[in-house]
């Protein structure tokens, strides 16, 4: 079997650290306006709302958070209606956000290394968790939910983005439960599928499926041995697929107030990565192994007879946050590159074959929502400008998984990208996003880009079939948006025309 190994990086002048750091600034202001600076032509028929989530505040009381993943969540809404686009952003006013805003200082330790002022004594044995609601946002069952994988979701007003409070999903979740930030939509079963994790000597994975109205359709619990750090999962009609990365947690430095929890995770390259096939209709999970790697995100998975194919973004090892290091001073060349891998499983002999499809660094894969869980051809990703050097994400990449042909549009040297979002053509407001007619490449790619040359963010729209033709429209904001995490599109409009 192939093993996942890092590649050597060299310096190339297609970005500057000063330029990249511009996207790591907080955006404390909240805005509400029609975007009036548009180059190109907005696609006719494109109506609905792009919701995005990510850390909006990266400091408090003049003290920087140690890692952007510790930042408080901020929701952005781009509303397309009647040939115009409206922008609004609101911070998710969690209980911890409100407390720190009133005190104007950091009151909670962050999972990725942020400590309260006062040294280790001030942090000793303080295991309180601030729900930062900063990872994903999704509209489902007439609810807009901001998600963070270590706690309950927050419900928001879809029209104003005001925070309504924690949502236990009609009593399904208890106060200490978790609800992951990577729900998957099954277009064939017309369900939203998500999970929650309870760690321990055996990790419990709770698998939830919801119907179109947001009502619980099924619930199962699986137990797997050992500690599990799982951020995402893949979905097929038969299985929910989880990768158990070969990591261990030593909580002592965390309890002693010396490190954040994520800084206490250690990768073991001698252990395999375990692939768990959880049957969605119930039954015993099936475990397979592959050479050690670390996976945050999956692109897609599908079944063909006895073979299961999984396309994932894999790292050679866990990119652990380092104590006492300012994340704005990161050396990208020292980090393991994130690469697109195809993992093929043969259930007849339980063999696993992993293959690297491209050495270029990439992340945040997406595809046409109708093809989730099905054999598909095109995957879209945020990618590096250079084909081999590990560097900030500066390009939009489409890969043809049948021919291997790639289309790339780079924003280097000044542009830095977030996750692309696929919006099918022909959407109707009263039908799900995956129900649009057309072929797999019939859609638009919505890409938020931070431009260091004007220190502002821009929303670019690409024809999904012609990435190399460049954007068909560029919408310029009046300010920047800090680098975000995930987003979703709904054909519904929540503004009055």
UniProtKB/TrEMBL annotation:
<keyword id="KW-0408">Iron</keyword>
<protein>
    <submittedName>
        <fullName>Carotenoid oxygenase family protein</fullName>
    </submittedName>
</protein>
<dbReference type="Pfam" id="PF03055">
    <property type="entry name" value="RPE65"/>
</dbReference>
<comment type="similarity">
    <text>Belongs to the carotenoid oxygenase family.</text>
</comment>
<dbReference type="InterPro" id="IPR004294">
    <property type="entry name" value="Carotenoid_Oase"/>
</dbReference>
<keyword id="KW-0479">Metal-binding</keyword>
<keyword id="KW-0560">Oxidoreductase</keyword>
